[in-house]
Amino acid sequence: MSDKKFDIYLEFNYLKLCLAAFNKINNKLEYYKEHTYESYFNNFKELEFEKLGKFVEENIIEIEKSIGEFVSDVYLIVETPQSISIKLSVANNNEGKKIIKEDIVYLVRDAKQQLIKSNKDYKILHIIVENYTLDNVQHKFLPTDNRCNKLSIDLKFICFPKDLLGEFEKLFLNQQILINRFVCLNYVKTYNFTDMEKNICQRGKNIVEGINKQEVVSIPSEPKRKGFFEKLFHFFK
Question: Using CA atoms, how far apart are residues 228 and 82, in angstroms rounded to an integer?
Fold first, then answer.
């Protein structure tokens, strides 16, 4: 079990790096700082990683001094023009049976595999269920235990280039820091939070913790154990 007292979130946008430390016990934001870095982008708004290393190192040291512990892992919220959003719809003949969680899981897995096959240079960061359609009737949220003949779901996949994510991973590995999870900054910006006064790191943390009940948590290739389906979607918790 980790004895770390803080969760660290970093936001990389086109103008600045923002760093935040949240106390794991009370969830309180105990450190927050913004640093501008326009000179670290080229004319295509792409980060120049060879220039960024020292800047990141200096800011990590600063946050370590402030919170009194070493940073060994972070959550990274990234803005990039290289991200893509792909929408897919998948359907299944449900033969008049009740909808069960496994039906949704298999449809999402099928869509995910289709996307991976045709976009091998991209990694999926977020999978969001936009609509459910039961016998031509659309629902925003899944009406559980309903019966239908045809079940379809509309999905949005938010993807980043694998080489970009690899550059970030190398950047932080040079500081002996692992990236727990990447989060798309544009997704955080456009999600309709009830409290829009929060900074991006706070909102990104909300996304990681499952505030969007339509976001899929995880879809491995094959379920391995009983109870697996209970943990896939935030909205099934």
Answer: 33
Angstrom distance (rounded) from CA 196 to CA 45? 26
The DSSP bridge partners found for residue 159 are 84, 124
pLDDT digits (tens, 9 = 90+) for 4-48: 899 999 999 888 899 999 999 999 999 999 998 776 766 666 778
Cα dist from 67 to 30, 74, 130, whole Å: 8, 14, 39
From CA 202, how far away is CA 77, in angstroms rounded? 11
Q: Among residues of the chain, what percentage have pLDDT more than 70?
A: 88
Q: Does pTM top 0.90 for this prediction?
A: no
d(CA 237, CA 232): 9
Which two tokens mark 112?
A: 């995910």
Cα–Cα dist 153/151, whole Å: 7
Contact 160, 82 (CB under 8 A): yes
Domains of the chain (ranges; CATH) run 6-81+162-208 (3.30.420.40), 84-159+215-236 (3.30.1490.110)
User: Quick one: 120 exposed, middle or buried, by C-beta within 10 A (0-12, 13-18, 19+)?
Assistant: exposed
- Best CA proximity match to 82, nearest among 122, 25, 36, 40: 122
φ/ψ of 195, rounded to 5, equals -115, 95
Rounded to an integer, what distance in angstroms lies between the CA atom of residue 175 and that of residue 56? 9
Residue 152: beta bridge partners? 91, 133
For 12, the token pair is: 């990389």
